[in-house]
Structures are given as C-alpha cells and as structure tokens.
Amino acid sequence: MNKFMSMQIILLFIVTCVSSIRWYMQPNTQKCLREELKQNVLVKGDYETQSIEGQYMDYIVRDSKGHILANKQDITKGKFTFSTENYDMFEICFTSRVPGYQRGVLHEVSLDIKTGIEAKQYEGLGEVAKLKPLELDLKILEDLSSSIVNDFSDMKHRVEEMRNTNESTSKRVHWFSMFSIFCLIGLSVWQILYLRRYFKAKKLIE
After folding, report:
1. pTM summary value
2. Of 13, 66, 88, 166, which has the highest C-beta tally within 10 A?
3. Measured between alpha carbons, how far is 170 from 181 in angstroms, rounded to an integer?
4. CA dist., res. 8 & res. 141, Å (int)
C-alpha cells in the first residue's frame, strides 16, 4: 500500500508539473516555438508579457500549412486553447512591435504550455461526476497510464517505420550497386571489342 501511494504521488507530481518558459525579446523582433504533436491532442497555453508604454506584443498559433489556430494583438496576459486535428508541426510566434519614433527596450515574455493529459481540468470533472478525491486520483492515474501506453505504441510504430525504411533503402542500394556493376562490365566488354575492331581496321593487330 505504501508503494502504491508513493507511486501515486510521483505520477501526480508528473501530471501537475508544468514547465515555464521565460525570455526577453528585442524591439521589432519575432520569436517562434515549434513542437510536433499527435492527432487529437488538447493544447492549453498561459502567456504573460511585460507591460511597456508604447510597446506592443502579438502572438499567433498555426500549423505547418499556415492555418491559424489562435492569435491576438496587443497582449499582456491571457490564455489560448486548441485541439490538433492531424499529426503536424505547430508553432507559436510572438512579435514585438515598437513605433518608429520610439526607442524600444527588452520585452519580457512568459509562456506555460500544457498538452494532452496535463491540459485536462480534472477539478471540474470531479465536481461534475461527483467523484471522491481517491476516485479522482485513480482517474488521473488511469488517463496517465493510457497516455504512457499510447506513447510507447507510437514509439514502437515509429521504430517499425524506420526499420522498414532502412530495409527498403538497403535493398534499393543493393540492386543499384548490382546494376552499376553490370553496366560497368558491359561497358568494359564493349570498349574492348570496339578497340579490337579499331586496331584490326588500322592493321595494328592481326
């Protein structure tokens, strides 16, 4: 039982652990963050920027095809939420804007992004479903376990794809090498016969 409770605490810590990103931007510059996400993944982001008079910050979230999933201008603090429809590369870009007549300063930006199970609101789920605290913890553990299993399944699928690609490439290289060898042999035989006829025509050999 103690081992179970310890594992539960560790897994709950993993679930609730959120990495915060903070950086400074030069005036009239753009910074983009990119990440590959699987299909049907919930993404939630909390952002906060330093409030500077006469200096503005915009953000935009889009996929590799240029589809805009979220955007806002002149931001200071807020949130965004979207769900991925396909496996794709997604990016969020922050743009600092300063009028030409004003000298800008470094602009501080803070961003917290949660994906998948981290983005779910379990507090609200527990209230709606009338779950006890232990039942809610078990629900979180169940979702986390499913997420880990899905990640391992996805990794296994990628390994199989890479292995198939390597085998296919190896076979193609092998047959291309054989074809190149036969071409060189054929070219050498043709060159020998051609030179033999040439030398015979010139009566250099019998």
Report:
1. 0.61
2. 88
3. 16
4. 7
pLDDT per residue over 176-202, tens digit each? 999 999 999 999 999 999 988 888 887
Q: Where are the domains of the chain?
A: 18-119, 122-201
Task: Fill in the amino acid letter for 39.
Answer: Q
Strands in 42-49's sheet, in edge-to-edge order, are 20-25, 107-115, 42-49, 77-83
**CB-based contacts of 106, cutoff 8 Å, min separation 6:** 24, 25, 26
Closest CA to 43 of 80, 89, 93, 76: 80
Instruction: Render 4-44 in DSSP notation, one character per residue.
Output: HHHHHHHHHHHHH---EEEEEE-TT-EEEEEEEE-TT-EEE
Question: Is the domain covering 18-119 a CATH 2.60.120.680 domain?
Answer: yes
- Rounded to whole angstroms, how far apart are CA atoms 168 and 165? 5
Taking alpha carbons only, the member of 109, 82, 94, 111 closest to residue 18 is 111
Is there a contact between 42 and 81 (Cβ–Cβ < 8 Å)?
Answer: yes
- How far is Cα of residue 73 from the mean position of the Cα atoms in its chain? 25
Q: How far apart are CA 14 and CA 9, in angstroms?
A: 9
